[in-house]
Amino acid sequence: MAADPLTPAVSDRICKHMNDDHAEAVVAYARHYAGIADASSARMLSVSPEAMRLEVDGAPVDVPFDHTLSDSEDAHRTLVAMLRAMPQG
Predict the structure, then answer these.
(1) Mean pLDDT of the chain, nearest integer
(2) What whole-number distance in Å separates Cα of residue 38 and Cα of residue 64?
(3) Is the pTM of this model over 0.90?
(4) Spatial CA neighbour of 47 closest among 20, 78, 14
(5) Please, is 13 exposed, middle or buried when counting C-beta atoms within 10 Å of its C-beta (0-12, 13-18, 19+)?
(6) HEC readout, the chain
């Protein structure tokens, strides 16, 4: 199955999945990658090839990726890798 390009519809699908099924991971992205250690709530607003946009405690924050994402499959692999790279504790 071919991966989908990162269109606004694909971004919306990724964000809905992350917010509905992995809300704790979105807060973890805000704390670790955006440097907002005391983040209490976070929602993923969009995913572009360059960054994910989060709303952290009501404020928009961009978290850049370490490379330009090529498609939805790359987005999935990258988001998982970013979680795995965080210190566990």
Answers:
(1) 95
(2) 20
(3) yes
(4) 14
(5) middle
(6) CCCCCCCHHHHHHHHHHHHHHCHHHHHHHHHHCCCCCCCCCEEEEEECCCEEEEEECCEEEEEECCCCCCCHHHHHHHHHHHHHHCCCC
What domains, with CATH codes, occur in the chain?
8-85 (3.20.180.10)
Mean pLDDT (whole number) for 49-58: 98
* Identity of the amino acid at 81: A
Separation of alpha carbons 13 and 89, rounded Å: 29
d(CA 40, CA 20): 16
What pLDDT score does 42 carry? 98
